[in-house]
Design goal:
The structure holds 2 protein chains of 2 kinds. Helices cover 64% and strands 0% of the residues of chain A. In chain A, helix 3 crosses helix 4. The longest helix of chain A is centred in the last third of the chain and has 25 residues. Chain B is mainly alpha-helical. The longest helix of chain B is centred in the middle third of the chain and has 21 residues. Chain B is elongated and about 65 Å long. Classes of the chains: A mainly alpha, B mainly alpha. The interface between A and B is large, with 51 and 40 residues.
Chain lengths: 190, 82
């Protein structure tokens, strides 16, 4: 059982991660700040239920994502948000994402990747449907392991892995399209 | 594309995540040694991850941090220490 007296000291170093996550979920600073504050107040009130010594980061991300899904999602939801293609192993879609990475990798020294625009990355990420965006952010931005993501989202590992896979493929596909429009892709596609 | 290159398609993300079981990871490492296109894909995937992360990491505005500290202190007074 965690001591409420230590709450602020325990969570302070995790606030930047919570804020970064909140910003990509809510898609604007105002809602992101409200979301972080709401989540932290909930965490504070429930801190006596947190098992001291277990994963505080996963616990806080869980409160943050639940708060978002229950209360903020409606505000920031876009009409075209749907599930991604559920395709199985080696669907054309999956191979496409791989082919895109492959065509980007013809010459690893040409550093096209580093020229991808920040605004394109933000937009591509924020356009991912929430059920994929959350695990992709937790893995690729916050650096959580599959196990931590499974704990955070209360999902089986297999579901986490398949959502990560689909989400990352969709993100890469979108980035490839933005980069093509900006002329940042190799001219000769294999 | 060889059967082994297809293994890279399937396992690339888990491999870069460091979440692949050791035997499969070892097979991929061996494959990368003699398949430059797949090795390039690994390099590009890592570089893409770095770029995504670099652009999506955010600094918390100091004004917001101040407000948050104030709000938490208020809540502390309200609930009291236990």
């Amino acid at each position: 059982m965690a001591d409420r007296e230590n709450f602020q000291g325990d969570v302070t170093e995790l606030i930047p991660q919570l804020y970064g996550m909140a910003l990509r979920l809510a898609r604007n600073r105002h809602d992101a700040e409200d979301l972080v504050q709401d989540a932290l107040l909930r965490a504070y009130r429930g801190y006596h239920t947190f098992q001291a010594g277990t994963n505080l980061r996963a616990w806080l991300f869980r409160i943050l994502t639940n708060t978002f899904i229950n209360e903020y999602r409606r505000r920031s939801r876009r009409p075209r948000e749907t599930e991604l293609d559920e395709g199985g192993e080696a669907t054309p879609y999956r191979l496409n994402a791989y082919e895109q990475v492959r065509s980007w990798s013809q010459d690893p020294e040409d550093h096209l990747i580093e020229q991808i625009f920040e605004s394109d990355i933000v937009e591509a990420m924020e356009n991912l449907p929430v059920i994929y965006r959350i695990p992709v952010l937790l893995a690729d931005v916050e650096g959580l392991s599959y196990k931590e993501i499974a704990q955070t989202l209360d999902l089986p590992m297999g579901t986490v892995m398949s959502r990560l896979h689909r989400g990352r493929n969709a993100l890469r596909k979108a980035l490839w399209e933005y980069a093509s429009k900006r002329g940042l892709t190799p001219t000769e596609v294999p | 594309m060889s059967r082994e290159c297809r293994q890279v398609v399937t396992h690339l993300y888990s491999y870069v995540d460091g979440e692949l079981e050791i035997e499969t990871a070892h097979r991929l490492v061996q494959h990368f040694e003699y398949c430059p296109p797949c090795k390039n894909i690994e390099i590009v995937e890592r570089r893409l991850r770095y770029t995504i992360r670099h652009h999506l990491i955010e600094e918390v505005p100091e004004v917001f941090m101040e407000r948050l500290r104030g709000r938490l202190a208020q809540e502390t007074r309200h609930l009291g220490f236990r």
